[in-house]
Amino acid sequence: MLSSKEKIFLNMLSDFLEGNKTVLPENSDINSLSDLARAQECDAILFYQTRLSSSNSSFAAVSYYALNRKFLLKQLHTAFCEKNIPYIIFKGTEIAKYYPKPELRAMGDIDILVKQEDKEKAAEIITELGFIRENTHSQNSNNHEWIFFSNQFEIELHHRLLYNDDFNLDIHTAFTDMAWENSTTDDGIYHTLKTEFHFVFLLLHIRKHILWSGIGIRQFLDIAVMIKNSDIDWVNTEILLNNLELLPFAKTCFALVDKFFGISSPLTPTHISDEFYNTAIKSILEGNVVSFSNDSGDEKLDNQYINRFNKENPNSLKKLFFALKLFFPSYIILCDKYPHLKKLGIIGYIIIPLMWIHRAVGSIFKKTAIKGIGYSVKPFSISGKIKERNDLLKQWGIM
User: Fold this and answer.
1) Would you state the pLDDT for residue 59?
2) pTM reported for the whole predicted model
3) Of all helices (H) and strands (E), which one includes residue 247?
4) Using an 8 Å Cβ cutoff, are 12 and 23 in contact?
5) Please, what's the b/e burial string for 80-115 (b: 16 or more CB within 10 A of its CB; e: otherwise)?
6) In the list 24, 35, 59, 109, which could disulfide-bond 47, CB 3.0-4.6 Å?
7) How far apart are CA 258 and CA 216, in angstroms?
8) pLDDT tens per residue across span 306-325
């Protein structure tokens, strides 16, 4: 059941999308409403809609950020043209153009896609503009997305839109790897993703966030503004979603967008129960994931485990083999954890048993051996929790 502040918050966002100003009910809890908007990175929209003084500074900061971002994008374009590096800007920076006030679409980073052979040169350009690259050489770091920081901005440099992992289906990564074929360009350097392709990618991105790191209302606001203000070819979009086995999930998202903001999709949304709606909005407004934390609070570890469990769907006999595979990971999984292993070629395959010993010995010295053993025998102890989570994913249309 939505609280009064949550109802006011969603009504405010709906007013924003429709171009209407928001009149707050008398005796509204202004501080609580401001806190919610800030947590969802919508406090600048709150000020624009209501002129609440508590959100004034956020409005000014977002507007200032938008102007500086525009200048940075021009710098990047000039530099990429000089080096003849094609690139694609995607997600927030591009989606902002569909917003009633584009500068109010808050964003934490600028996402850039380049071809893999251009990634090092693109990284040099970003560094020359004063950005510092995050260390990506530790075994626990993300080696796919190269992250760069400056005093004000964060840039994520990608060579793929999705990566092969425990959260993306092969058909999803194969689809997003066609980004360049599904883009347009005027100068051969700056490319824009085609509307339907970008829209489907956003849904894939939401799906991954649900399975991995949590979701917020802003991601559904992006879907709403594209439904309302972009020139989506809905026949083609439905075909794409169906081919990607994403249509049930997309229709669930459309149903939520309709309930949140009153924005209807031409594709008939899935009927969702009041119970699921309340669960979904609670997860979204609290930034939760469709998962559970283990006793150590290692939520990401549990998410990864569960998705591997679901992919292999072990029955009683296979659970033992599933557990052994967790304890003795494959070459592919080892390469993801130890990137230097792949560089060894055939030797990398030969030393796999040594890597298993290395991991086991390291866990003893790090005092994580007991935790590792406990993690490997989970198939025998948490099947009930996994079933509960899977039932919720079915309601989302993911399984």
Assistant:
1) 79
2) 0.80
3) helix 247-261
4) no
5) beeeebbbbbbbbbebbebbeeebbbbbebbbbbbe
6) 59
7) 16
8) 665 665 555 555 555 656 66
Query: How many C-beta neighbours within 10 Å does residue 354 have?
Result: 9
- What contacts 302, CB < 8 A, 6 or more positions away? 291, 292, 293, 294
Give residue-wise pLDDT tens across range 86-102.
999 999 999 999 999 99
SS3 content of the chain, % helix, strand, coil (to 5): 60, 5, 30
Give the chain's largest Cα–Cα span. 72
Q: Where are the alpha helices (DSSP H) in the chain?
A: 4-18, 30-39, 43-50, 56-82, 92-95, 119-128, 170-176, 195-211, 217-229, 234-243, 247-261, 274-286, 299-312, 318-327, 331-337, 346-350, 352-365, 369-376, 383-396
Beta bridge partners of 184: 192
Contact in structure between 98 and 225 (CB atoms under 8 Å): yes
Q: CA 56, CA 62: separation in Å to the nearest integer?
A: 10
User: In b/e form, how buried is each residue of 269-280, taking b as 16+ CB within 10 angstroms?
Assistant: bbebeeebbebb
Rounded Cα distance between 386 and 292, Å, is: 9
Q: DSSP code of 182?
A: G
- Distance, in Å, from the CA atom of 91 to the CA atom of 201, rounded to the nearest integer, reads 9
